[in-house]
UniProtKB/TrEMBL annotation, chain A:
GO terms for cellular component: plasma membrane. Signal peptide: none annotated. Its main location: membrane. Keywords: Cell membrane, Membrane, Transmembrane, Transmembrane helix. The lineage of its organism: Bacteria, Pseudomonadati, Pseudomonadota, Alphaproteobacteria, Hyphomicrobiales. This is ABC transporter permease. Pfam families: BPD_transp_2. It is found in: Cell membrane. One of its GO terms (molecular function) is transmembrane transporter activity. It is a multi-pass membrane protein. It comes from the Bacteria.
From TrEMBL, chain B:
One of its GO terms (molecular function) is ATP hydrolysis activity. PANTHER family: CARBOHYDRATE TRANSPORT ATP-BINDING PROTEIN MG119-RELATED (PTHR43790), GALACTOFURANOSE TRANSPORTER ATP-BINDING PROTEIN YTFR (PTHR43790:SF9). Coiled coil: none annotated. It holds the Pfam family ABC_tran. This is Sugar ABC transporter ATP-binding protein. PROSITE patterns: ABC_TRANSPORTER_1, ABC_TRANSPORTER_2. Residues 9-249, 265-509 form the ABC transporter domain. It comes from Metarhizobium album. The lineage of its organism: Bacteria, Pseudomonadati, Pseudomonadota, Alphaproteobacteria, Hyphomicrobiales. Belongs to the ABC transporter superfamily.
From TrEMBL, chain C:
It comes from Metarhizobium album. Keywords: Cell membrane, Membrane, Transmembrane, Transmembrane helix. Pfam families: BPD_transp_2. This is ABC transporter permease. It comes from the Bacteria. One of its GO terms (cellular component) is plasma membrane. The chain crosses the membrane at residues 12-32, 39-59, 65-86, 98-116, 147-169, 195-217, 273-295.
Length: 358, 513, 314
């Protein structure tokens, strides 16, 4: 029989070691599908590591991919802290991108700082509104937010498709379904020339630091922590659970919306229906790996980005399906849950106890 | 006479540790056929742990349980298996009833009694057997009723029937009278007597001396996880048992007579809407004055929760007015109530009283975090929050690793002290104490009582909602009873006896007054 | 506009509604069984994907159709076992574990497909289940073609509704499953094993969901496409609430939903010239949200849903 005994106080080593352990477990488990695909596992991981970290190009690519992941990771982290399971970051990201395109592709023009501020606000507000709906349905009507946000992802995907095939379609796109391009004045500047690293990274890191300060040092953060850990006690103490949830929902959606702004205005330049390869869902893994710590999200996002970049080049080099990246990330999520158990509990194995004779 | 009856159950050298805590230490216990054994001890003495080991919820670290088989020979009981305990003829009535509320009484009773992999259930045979059992035991219940519709007393009947239906030879009851009216308690003990006369062995866990003295044949006293005495009930008295149970003389605070002052809380025909009587209040009127404690008694689930929510500021009256110190509170909100000088001690400290994963300091500041004292421009003043907690830890003698420890690490008594510090320290005008001593050991109970009486002395008006009738009489100047969402008039506690109170709790109008 | 509503009276419309409903019937029944035992199975989307892929693959590799169904059910059960290890044995968050299982199952299915068929552009086909022609029943006017000229899997879904309803209401095991979703302490106090009951329900429920997925590749279509489950799993979770955890109502909910979906397709043909097609495609998802929202308030959830049970803690 296996028994779990709660630990009274987990050591710091366990707390900080757990995500590392989770990463290792997921990579070990990912060897199984690789073996099944008939690949030399050691070689594959070698290619993966060098593909992610082995060149300047690879490193900048990791940074570029980490940028949206930090923001979607924050979206999940702050929501999960309040036990608001926002799984709709993917949809909120697209809505944010759509709002950025709506503002930044020629309808208005002005000086660059103003335009960039404008599209950021538009994207954040759009994402926030997108998440406020499910939040209201949860707190007022008890509708499970996981299901509503997941279903909204499909609705948003269709809506985006409709817009880029219809009203927002670029007449110059030779028939491809894509939006008109973002104006130069609204484009996020590159941080490093000739790479894909753009100013969205700064926004993302500032957002993470801001969230960390909010959660630890301010009254609203205090409320979010209390409501997340024990809604009944928070309510008894006079905190409005509804208001707190709405705040969390808005912030969470805004972060995901900003991720969309960054992708469309920092990288792609126009909106297509393949803007995000699942950054919204991967953000959940990032947040869990970070133990829902906003600062931790930065590191976790870089790790997950490295897995994506490394697995991509591995799949190209070894001709394995690129779905290996999603597989590793999914294994990562389950491994985090497992390693979390190890930090909170001691596992005791005991033989089935037998009655003792007198 | 019972001493000659055959032994049906024996516990030998039971030891159980939870981490550093020794819950049971080398406990031996023998049960004979047809006797009623009381397991007496204060909260935390290890009674429930011992019975959970007997029933297989826990596994003992040392020692074993032996049950007589059909031929009367003692056989070891496989540990850690409720199934084995049931098969050996042990039935347990948990303090928090183990019933599935949305299923019928019959479903609850037959659950797990027949082989699982059958194409249909043998309901008619079950009904026939239960009809006979109800006839013999006098425990009547509608088998097709949904449990959620039934009262606490009826639910307890289901629990006992569940055990009898499984042909239990040994019945264990954990604090069976905790939620019953005095009359219902008397009825329960009559039933247990007659069952014992038919050969059932009964163990009941209690910390109430009077029911131990009147209801048992033999008493085993547990203290600090050890069995400190085992004596025949006949010939023992309450004082002796009390001393055995506590192990020292407990200084009890005494309520000094005191003339009440001006009214602090006035409820005038207050109604609160709700789906059931638990959440509803109907035309409740009450006045509580400075320097008096008004006790609210009643069988649980009769609207006490609604009254507590009202006085905590969690619900707003749908009709009638609530005034505090002469000011009508039209829009109720916990923050407003705290600001208006209401100190609130919630019923369930783990659920409503504290955020387990947050620190002691954060929990003490929980209600007033928005005050100037603890924040500036929305940023928390950690120094002030910590200093406040350190004061409270000293003043209330909260045993803890420090103000930054998560509050869930504290024992029940220390957690309650932290909540007292939060509720009482700003000299509130009105105090709501909802089951303030539930689950606490004697020392902590005495401390809570002392603090409440001090507040009364200072001139606070106190509403005490309690199911513990000893506490009710000890602390209250006046007593009112909640029944089906209504509150009776209040009576001076000195003029009230247990019998009258019991009748009021059962909904009979008080003719005595 | 009259022509739009004439559609509602045609046999082909209702036959399509039942066809669309079939995977949802399996999905809702599976989700319902899990939830009755107290476990919200958010692995459903991934489990249906695995069912769709593995059932199809087995047939593609030469097995007969029914073996394919069994393979799909088995693979679903396997992922159900994984989910129950996380949610029941370890008592972890059912939300996060379920999503993890969905992500894992989906990517595992896609990866496996790509490993076996690395370079195909047009998905290879199999010969799927064919519509039956049951002698007497099929010739009942209207109902015959709607209900009985479907494939064998649709009939299996109907049968399963009855079996599950009877199982939950009438058998001792069904009672135990219902009780464990209401109050696991009560179940343990009666000597039953909470862990096994919940694990069993989740594994069985997952197997049923996976058959729903298999219907897509082995009856509705004849090949496997990426993203083909397209949120049907999440729709099933919403419909479970709408069906108030009753198998009979689940059948009703799924067919009602199927009717809306079929209507949407036909409406698109009639007025599609004026409105973008995406508007119509959104309808099923919007309906699911509406169903969930309207019924969440009045639903009486299994009391212990999403609450992990830890022995010796009450």
């Amino acid at each position: 029989m296996m028994r779990l005994e709660p630990r009274t106080a987990p050591s710091p080593l366990l707390i900080y070691g757990a995500p590392v352990l989770a990463a290792v477990i997921s990579l070990v488990l990912a060897a199984i599908p690789l073996l099944a695909a008939g690949v030399n596992v050691f070689q594959a991981y070698g290619v993966m590591i060098s593909g992610a970290l082995g060149s300047q190009f690879a490193l900048t690519e990791v940074v570029a991919r980490a940028t949206p992941l930090i923001l979607t990771g924050l979206a999940a982290a702050i929501a999960f802290r309040a036990k608001l399971f926002n799984i709709g970051a993917e949809g909120q990201l697209y809505i944010g991108a759509l709002a950025a395109v709506a503002i930044g592709s020629g309808r208005f023009d002005g000086p660059a700082p103003l335009m960039i501020l404008g599209i950021c606000i538009a994207g954040a507000v759009a994402g926030a509104l997108m998440m406020l709906g499910p939040t209201v349905l949860k707190v007022k009507l008890g509708a499970d937010e996981v299901v509503t946000t997941l279903l909204l992802n499909f609705i948003v995907a269709l809506f985006v498709q409709m817009m880029i095939e219809g009203p927002m379609k670029d007449p110059m796109s030779m028939g491809w379904p894509q939006s008109e391009p973002i104006l130069d004045s609204a484009t996020l500047p590159k941080l490093i020339d000739k790479t894909r690293v753009h100013a969205g990274l700064i926004i993302a890191i500032l957002a993470a630091i801001g969230t960390e300060i909010l959660m630890r040092r301010t009254v609203p953060g205090f409320r979010i922590r209390a409501v997340g850990a024990s809604p009944a006690a928070a309510r008894f103490a006079g905190m409005s659970v509804t208001k707190t949830m709405l705040l969390v929902g808005a912030l969470s959606g805004a972060f995901a919306g900003l991720a969309g702004v960054g992708e469309v205005a920092g990288l792609k330049g126009y909106l297509t229906n393949d803007l995000s390869p699942g950054y919204g869902y991967a953000g959940i893994v990032v947040a869990m790996l970070a133990g829902l710590s906003p600062i931790g999200v930065i590191a976790a996002a870089f790790f997950v980005a490295a897995v994506f970049v490394g697995a991509d080049s591995m799949s190209r080099a070894m001709t394995v399906s690129s779905y290996i990246a999603n597989l590793i990330v999914a294994l990562g999520l389950l491994s985090v849950l497992l390693s979390g158990v190890l930090t909170r509990y001691r596992i005791r194995w005991s033989l089935p106890a037998r009655g003792r004779a007198s | 006479m019972t001493d000659e009856n055959p032994v049906v159950l024996e516990l030998r050298g039971i030891t159980k540790r939870f981490g550093p805590l020794v819950a049971n230490e080398a406990i031996d216990l023998v049960m004979r056929k047809g006797e009623i054994l009381a397991l007496l001890g204060e909260n935390g003495a290890g009674k429930t742990t011992l019975m959970n080991i007997l029933f297989g919820h826990y596994v003992a670290d040392e020692g074993g349980v032996f049950v007589a088989d059909g031929a009367g020979a003692l056989q070891p009981l496989p540990p850690g298996s409720p199934r084995a305990a049931l098969d050996a003829g042990i039935g347990m009535v948990h303090q928090h009833f183990a019933l599935a509320e949305n299923l019928t009484v019959l479903d609850n009773i037959t659950l797990g009694t027949e082989p699982l992999f059958r194409l249909s259930r043998a309901n008619s045979a079950a009904r026939a057997k239960l009809a006979g059992l109800m006839q013999r035991s006098g425990l009547k219940i509608d088998l097709d009723a949904q449990v959620s519709q039934l009262s606490v007393g009826e639910r307890q009947r289901i629990e006992i029937l569940k055990a009898l239906y499984r042909d239990a030879r040994i019945l264990v009851l954990d604090e069976p009278t905790a939620v019953l009216t005095p009359q219902e308690s008397d009825g329960l003990f009559e039933t247990l007597r007659s069952l014992a006369a038919h050969g059932l062995s009964v163990v009941f866990i209690s910390h109430k001396l009077h029911e131990v003295v009147s209801g048992s044949d033999r008493v085993a006293v547990l203290r600090g996880g050890r069995k400190v005495a085992e004596i025949p009930t006949r010939g023992s008295d309450k004082a002796q048992l009390a001393e055995l149970m506590v192990g020292r003389a407990v200084s009890r605070s005494k309520r000094e007579p005191r003339a009440p002052g001006a009214p602090v809380l006035i409820l005038a025909d207050v109604s609160v809407g709700g789906a059931n009587i638990r959440q509803r209040l109907e035309n409740v009127s009450m006045t509580v004055r400075e320097g008096e404690i008004v006790g609210i008694a009643g069988v649980s689930g009769n609207g006490q929760a609604a009254l507590a929510n009202l006085l905590s500021g969690l619900v707003t009256p749908s009709a009638g007015t609530l005034s505090l110190g002469g000011k009508v509170m039209s829009l109720c909100d916990p923050q407003e109530f705290v600001a208006a000088g209401v100190g609130r001690i919630p019923e369930d400290r783990h659920h409503e009283g504290a955020v387990g994963s947050m620190t002691i300091a954060e929990n003490i500041a929980l209600e007033t975090i928005r005050s100037r004292r603890f924040q500036r421009f929305g940023f928390l003043k950690f120094g002030a929050i910590r200093a406040r907690a350190e004061e409270a830890i000293k003043a209330y003698d909260i045993r803890c690793p420090g103000p930054d420890a998560p509050i869930r690490q504290l024992s029940g008594g220390n957690m309650q002290k932290a909540i007292l510090a939060r509720a009482l320290d700003d000299a509130p005008r009105l105090i709501l104490a909802n089951q303030p001593t539930r689950g606490l050991d004697v020392g902590a109970v005495a401390e809570v009582h002392r603090r409440l009486l001090l507040a009364r002395e200072r001139g606070a008006a106190i509403v005490l909602i309690t199911e513990d009738l000893d506490e009710l009489f000890e602390l209250s100047d006046r007593v009112a009873v909640m029944f089906r969402s209504r509150l009776t008039d209040s009576f001076a506690s000195a003029d009230l006896d247990l019998k009258t109170l019991g009748l009021m709790m059962a909904g009979h109008d008080n003719e005595a007054a | 506009m009259a022509s739009v509503f004439d559609i509602l009276l045609t046999v082909s419309f209702w036959a399509a509604a039942v066809r669309i409903a079939t995977p949802l019937i399996f999905g809702v029944l599976g989700a319902l069984l899990c939830e009755k035992s107290g476990v919200l199975n958010l692995g459903i989307e991934g489990i249906m994907t695995v069912g769709a892929m593995s059932g199809w693959l087995a047939v593609y590799a030469g097995a007969d159709l029914w073996t394919g169904v069994v393979v799909a059910a088995f693979m679903g059960a396997l992922f159900g076992l994984l989910l129950s290890f996380f949610t029941v044995t370890l008592g972890l968050s059912q939300h996060v574990s379920g999503l993890g299982v969905t992500m894992l199952a989906t990517s595992a299915a896609y990866f496996t497909y790509r490993v076996i068929l690395p370079n195909v552009d047009t998905p290879p086909r199999i010969v799927p289940f064919q519509p039956l022609d049951i002698p007497v029943l099929s010739s009942i006017p209207f109902l015959g073609p709607v209900l009985f000229q479907q494939t064998a899997l649709t009939l299996l879904a109907f049968v399963l509704v009855g079996v599950l309803a009877w199982f939950l209401a009438k058998t001792p095991l069904g009672l135990a499953v219902r009780a464990v979703g209401e109050n696991p302490s009560a179940v343990e106090a009666q000597g039953l094993n909470v862990l096994w009951l919940r694990t069993g329900a989740v594994v069985a429920g997952s197997a049923i969901m996976a058959i729903g997925g298999a219907f897509l590749t082995m009856s509705a279509f004849d090949a496997f496409f990426f993203e083909m489950v397209a949120g049907r799993g999440w729709i099933c979770i919403a419909l479970t609430v709408f069906a108030s955890w009753k198998p009979g109502k689940a059948l009703f909910a799924a067919i009602l939903f199927g009717a809306f979906d079929a209507f949407q397709v036909r409406l698109q043909q009639v007025v599609g010239a004026f409105l973008p097609s995406q508007i119509f495609l959104m309808i099923p998802y919007i309906l699911s949200i509406v169903a969930l929202v309207v019924w969440s308030r009045r639903a009486s959830y299994p009391k212990a849903l999403m609450i992990p049970y830890v022995r010796g803690q009450r």
